[in-house]
UniProtKB/TrEMBL annotation:
EC number: 2.7.1.31
GO molecular function (one): glycerate kinase activity
NCBIfam families xref list: glycerate kinase
UniProt-recorded name of the protein: Glycerate kinase
Any Pfam family matching the protein: Gly_kinase
Family listed: Belongs to the glycerate kinase type-1 family.
InterPro entries in UniProt: Glyc_kinase_flavodox-like_fold (IPR018193), Glycerate_kinase (IPR004381), Glycerate_kinase_RE-like (IPR018197), Glycerate_kinase_sf (IPR036129)
UniProt keywords, alphabetically: Kinase, Transferase
Record Gene3D superfamilies: Glycerate kinase, domain 1, Glycerate kinase, domain 2
Species this chain originates from: Halanaerobium saccharolyticum subsp. saccharolyticum DSM 6643
GO biological process: organic acid phosphorylation
Length: 378
């Protein structure tokens, strides 16, 4: 029997590789002869860099960059095993956790550090860059990112505009002739799992800015600024980012990546599955075990277990999903290639206790799953 173990991370508890290893331990506790292939997974969100570095035997590279508030922070990116592909989580440089609660202000926060990570990846020789664009503290439409790469985003005086979504109204001209020339030869994919437009009631400001510190008045201003940004991009670059699904992701970084870097926005799990050649890993596999921290009705919208299960289902390979917890509507995943699902929680307990014991609980459950599968009919 050959089993492919392909989980996402159990956030706050286990990396994807740690989860995979504990599932393998449980399987081998029952039968060490079972062939288990480990493939840590991700969907473009937190943990994507670590998962792909683990899956490809790459390396994590740390880099001091400009944080969302303009201060220096230590961020990171991943250079995968092929030495040609870099993976960036924009949150590592421009994420909400980098901003203290009392300093949250999307009128001021910048994606400049994300641009610096892209430049660092270019310095390392990357020919393909994947950018996960979740968890941002920003609402600047990726203008800071572009400035870090040499773009000139100019006001009426011909000077670079200031950091932050509050400054987008100052834009009068966009010049890309000084943009890092290496970008012309690099494929850039943005892992995006939302379909919000850049502006409007479903756009970046109205939907996401409040959690980044914006009050209702600020939300309206930020939305107006994003509209202005889009108008200038249409005029200066002959592109309309707002027509692209996901343009509003990460405070409009989705729009900025398309406008300035000609990036392509795709579902994160789709990018990852293609990158690691998932179909090849499915060859001669009898069972796939996947999972993540939470499995619920929303998992059908771009989450790792369902992305994995849909690919496996195309080859008629059964899939079992293991989760830390099961949420409302979890039964929906059964219509998307997952044959059965389980939670590692085996008794009433505090969350802290479950997190601490998650390696053991994951191994125990995996052993019981394999025991059940291997029952021979009398």
């Amino acid at each position: 029997m050959r089993i492919l173990v392909a989980p996402d991370s159990f956030k706050g508890s286990l990396t994807a590789m740690e989860a995979a290893e504990n599932i393998k331990n449980g399987i081998h506790n029952y039968d060490s002869k079972i062939d288990v292939d480990l493939l840590p997974m991700a969907d473009g969100g937190e943990g994507t860099v670590q998962s792909l570095v683990d899956a490809t035997k790459g390396e994590i590279i740390k880099k001091k960059v400009t944080g969302p508030l303009g201060n220096r922070v230590e961020a990171f990116y991943g250079l995968l095993g092929d030495k040609k592909t870099a993976v960036i989580e924009m949150a590592a440089a421009s994420g909400l956790p980098l901003v203290p609660e009392e300093k949250k202000n999307p009128s001021k926060t910048t994606t400049y550090g994300t641009g610096e990570l892209i430049a660092a990846a270019l310095d390392a020789g990357a020919q393909k860059i994947i950018i996960g664009i979740g968890g941002s503290a920003t609402n600047d439409a990726g203008v800071g990112m572009a400035q870090a790469l040499g773009a000139e985003i100019l006001d009426e005086k011909g000077e670079q505009i200031d950091f932050g979504g509050g400054s987008l109204s100052q834009i009068e001209q966009i010049k890309l002739d000084k943009l890092d020339s290496r970008l012309k030869d690099v494929e850039i994919l943005a892992a995006c799992d939302v379909d919000n437009p850049l502006y409007g009631k479903e756009g970046a400001a109205y939907v996401y800015a409040p959690q980044k510190g914006a009050n209702p008045e600020m939300v309206e201003i930020l939305d107006q600024n994003l509209r202005h940004f889009n108008d200038i991009v249409i005029k200066e670059l002959n592109k309309n980012p707002n027509e692209i699904s996901g343009a509003g992701a990460a405070g409009g970084l989705g729009a900025g990546l398309v406008a300035f870097l000609d990036a392509e926005l795709k579902a994160g799990v789709t990018i990852i599955l293609d990158l690691i050649n998932f179909e090849e890993r499915l060859k001669n596999v009898d069972l796939v075990i996947t999972g993540e921290g939470m499995l619920d009705g929303q998992s059908i919208y771009g989450k790792t277990p369902v992305g994995v299960s849909r690919s496996a289902a195309e080859k008629d390979i059964p899939v079992i999903a293991i989760a830390g917890t099961l949420g409302e509507g979890v039964e929906k995943v059964l219509d998307h290639g997952i044959n059965s699902y389980f939670s590692i929680i085996d008794r009433p307990a505090a969350l802290k206790e479950i997190i601490e014991e998650s390696p053991k609980l994951l191994a125990k459950l995996s052993e019981q799953i394999i025991r059940t599968i291997q029952i021979k009919r009398l």
